[in-house]
Amino acid sequence: MTPSASDRLGQARRHALLGQLLLGAAIPVAVGSVLWRVTSPGIATTIAVIGIALLAILAWRRTRAFDTPWLVRQLDARRADLDDSTDLLLTPPASLTPLQQLQQARVRERLRAQPAPDLRTPWPWARIVALWIAAAVVMATALLWPGRATGPGALQPSDEPVPTAPGIPHLVAQRLHVVPPAYTGLAGRDEVSLDAKAPAGSRLAWTLRFEPQPSTAALVFHDGQRIALTRDGDTWQATHVLAKSTLYRVVAAGTEGQPPTRLRRLDAMPDRAPEVKVLAPDRGLSLVTVGQTRWPLAFEARDDYGIAPTATLKLTLAQGSGENIAFKEQVMTLRGTGPATARRFTASLDLKALGIAVGDDLIAQLTVQDTRSPAPQRAQSPGLILRWPADLGQESAGLEGLVKKVMPAYFRSQRQIIIDAEALQKQKRSLPAERFVERADAIGVDQRILRLRYGQFLGEEAEGEPQPPPTNDAEEVHTDDDGHDHAGEAAQADDGHGHGEATSATGTSFGREADVLEAYGHTHDHAEAATLLDPETRATLKKALDQMWQSELHLRQGHPDQALPFAYKALEYIKQVQQATRIYLARVGPELPPIDETRRMGGDRTGIAPRALGPLARPQDDEAPAPARAWAALANDRVPADAADLEALQAWLRRNEARVPDALDLFAAIDEVRGDPDCAPCRQRLRSLLWSASAQPAAQVPRRGATDAAGRRYLDALRQEAAR
Questions:
Q1: 274 preceded by cis ω (within 30°)?
Q2: What is the helix (H) or strand (E) element at residue 217, kind and residue range?
Q3: pLDDT in tens, 43-53
Q4: Cα dihedral sign for 471, 476, 477, 480?
Q5: pLDDT classification of 466: cutoffs 50, 70, 90
C-alpha cells in the first residue's frame, strides 16, 4: 500500500471518531447538568466524565470498520483509472503472475502521479446542531430553575397589620434570605414570612421596607439582644448568624404607644451526629472457623448532611491470658462508597498478616465523622470481636492449623442434651452407623462436661488431674460412681476419687482428716466448695450426678434411646436442687414479730387512736410558685391578666428555660397575653402551656376525718363490753 493511501485511511478513522464524539457528547453533558441541579457537583461531574468515556470507547469500536478492505472498496469506487486493481497492492509480488505484477506496477505508478482522494465521511451537522441545542435547553432549565437560585429575590408584601392612626411607620414589604452553612450542601432560599427554620449556623439576611420611613429600626430578641437595621435607600437591612432558636420582633422608631408586633420565631435545627450500623458480621462475638484466613467487615454510616469519604478502622489484638495480656493496636483508613448521606465501608482483614493465633482476640471498631465545619462530629461503631479460643484450636504455626469445633461447656445444659439426644434418635434410620455413633459420642462428651461442672459443688475434682498415691494399708479403693453404697461405711472415708483411708479393726483412722488434707492437698469440704448446700440438697445433687453418669455411659456406647431415661431423671433432680436453693434463700428474709393475742377483740385503742397530722412543709424556693400563681390567676377569663404576675412568670422562665419543654412557645404565649390582656383564647393557651411547665405536686396523705356519731356509738359499745 502506498504511503498516501495509508495516510488517507488514518485521516478517515480520526475524522469519524471526532464526529461520533461531537454528536454523542451532548447527551452526557445534559444529564450531568440535571444531576448538578438535583444532587451535587461531584456526582454530576463523575457521571458526565463516565458517559463521555463510554461514548469514546463506542466510537473507537465503530471506527474499526475503516479497515484495509474498506479502503480498497473506496479507492476502486472513486478512481476509475485504477481498473479495480487496488487489491493487487496488498499482495506480495512473488505470489503474482507476470501479468498481475505488471498491473500492480501500473496501479502504484498512477497513485504516485495522482494522490488518493479524501476518504473522510462528512459529519452529520444537522443532527449535531439539533442535539446540542436540546442539551443547551436542558442545561439552562436545570441551572436557572428558581429553586436553585442562591441570591435573594424580590421583596414580598408584609403580613403585619396596618396601624389605625396615620403617620405611624409600619412594615409594608419584607424578605428573609437564609444561607445554610456550606458543608450542608443546601442552597440559599427566601422564606415566605419572617419566621424561619434553618440549620444551626445559617446566615440570615433581612431586607425590610417601612412606610413612612422611620428614623431608626431594630430587631429585638426575647433575651434582650438587639440588632440595629441599617438603611440602604428605601430599604432596611440586617444580618445575623443563627446559633440557637430564638424569638424576635421588628421595632421601628415612632411606634411607641402602639400594640407591639407579634413575635417571630427562628428555629435552629442542630446537626445530628452520624450513626454507624454494622452490616457484617451479624454478631458482636465471632469465633474462628476451620480454614478461615480472612475476616470480612461491612459498616454503613448515615448522617443528615454528609459523611466524610474516609473512615478509621482501629484494630486491637489482645494476646496472652491471665495477667500477662499484651495489646497491639493498628489503624487502617477505609474509603467509603455510595451517597454522602449513607456511605458504606468494607474491609477484608488478612488474619495471618495481623498475627492472630490460638487464644487471641481481635477487636475492630470503625470511627466516622461528618462534614460539619469547623468541628466535625464523630461516631464509633460497636466493637466487633473475633476470638480464637484456646480450647478450640491445636498448636500450629499459622491459620492453616486445624481448629477443633467444640461447643463450650457453658453453652450446654441438661435440657439441651436431652433435645440433642431426641433429635439424634429420630435421625437414626437416615444416618450411617458410624456417623450415628460419632454424634452420640459427642453428646456423651457434653454430658460428661456438664456432670463435672455440677460435681464441683460436691467437692469433686476435674478428671484427668494427678491423683495422690493410695496408702499401703488400703484394702480396697472405691469411687462414687462404682455403684456401691458408701453412706453406711465407717471403715473408709472416700473423697469421691478413689482416695481412701485405711482403718483399723476397731474403726479408728490412722490419720486425722486435717492431716490427710494437708498431706494430699484435698480441700473438697471447705466452705466455698461443698458446704454451700444443705445435706438434703447435696443428696439430691448426688442422685442427679449418678443419672448423668448412666446417661453418659449409654451415649458414649452409641445408644441414645437407652440414655434418655437417665437424662430425664437427671433433669428432674436438677430442678429439685434449683427449687431447694430458692427455698433456702427465701428463709434468710426478716421474721415478723408475733401477734399479741391478748389485745384481740378487747377494744383497747391505746396507740391507735386518730391523731392530727401536722401541716406539710412548703417549698422554700420563692420562684417555684410563679407558674402556679399565674395559672390560677388566668382561670377567670373575665378578669384581665395582672401585669405583675406575667412579669414574674417571664422572669422565672428566663432562669428556667431548660426545665420547660418548649420555652419559646411559652414566651410567645406570655407576649400575646401581655399585648391583649382580655383575649380569652390567649389566656387559655397560656394556661395549657403552664400546666405542662408546672412542677408536679408532692404526694400527700389525706387526713383522717373526725369520728362521727356512728363511730362514737361503736366505741362506746366496745368500752361497755370491755367493762363487763
A1: no
A2: strand 217-221
A3: 778 888 888 88
A4: negative
A5: very low
494 close to 502: Cβ distance less than 8 angstroms: no
d(CA 443, CA 406): 11
Pairwise CA distance, residues 623 & 651, whole Å = 9
Per-residue pLDDT band for 163 (boundaries 50, 70, 90) equals confident
Nearest to 219 by CA among 199, 196, 198: 196
- Per mean pLDDT, which range of 271-285, 299-313, 330-344, 688-702 is the poorest? 688-702
pLDDT beyond 50 at 694: yes
Given a contact cutoff of 8 angstroms between Cβ atoms, the answer to whether 459 and 495 are in contact is yes
What is the pLDDT at residue 723?
82
Q: Compute CA distances 297 → 247, 366, 385, 472, whole Å.
A: 48, 10, 11, 63
Amino acid found at 379: A
Closest CA to 38 of 133, 137, 143: 143
Q: Residue 211: which H helix or E strand, with range?
A: strand 203-211
Based on DSSP, count helices (H) and strands (E) in the chain, helices before strands: 17, 20
Taking each helix axis as running N to C, give the angle between helix 663-675 and helix 643-655, from 0 to 180 degrees, rounded to the nearest 10: 160
Angstrom distance (rounded) from CA 468 to CA 500: 10
Contacts by residues 264-268 (CB-CB < 8 Å, ≥ 24 positions apart):
264/193, 264/194, 264/195, 265/195, 265/664, 265/668, 266/195, 266/196, 266/197, 266/198, 266/204, 266/242, 267/196, 267/197, 267/198, 268/198, 268/199, 268/200, 268/202, 268/242, 268/243, 268/244
User: What strand order describes the sheet that includes 217-221?
Assistant: 196-199, 264-269, 246-252, 217-221, 226-228
Residues 6+ apart with CB under 8 A from 528: none
CA distance 348 to 352: 12
What amino acid is encoded at 321 in this protein?
S
Closest of 208, 210, 212, 214 to residue 193, by C-alpha: 208
What the block records as the C-alpha cell of 617 is: 412543709
Quote the percentage of the chain above a pLDDT of 90.
27
Question: 295, 386 in Cβ contact below 8 A?
Answer: yes
Cβ count near 264 (within 10 Å): 18
H or E element: which one contains 171?
Answer: strand 170-179
Mean pLDDT of 601-625: 57
Q: Tell how far CA 75 is from the center of its chain.
A: 71
Q: What is the mean pLDDT of residues 302-323?
A: 88
The bridge status of strand 384-387 relative to strand 285-287 is parallel
Sign of the dihedral defined by the CA atoms of residues 300, 305, 308, 314, in that order: negative
Rounded mean pLDDT, 215-244: 91
Condensed to tens digits (0 to 9), the pLDDT of residues 315-357 reads 999 988 655 778 899 999 999 999 999 999 999 999 999 999 9
Contact 178, 204 (CB under 8 A): yes
Confidence tier at 158 by pLDDT (50, 70, 90):
confident
The pTM of this model reads 0.48
- 588, three cell numbers: 434468710
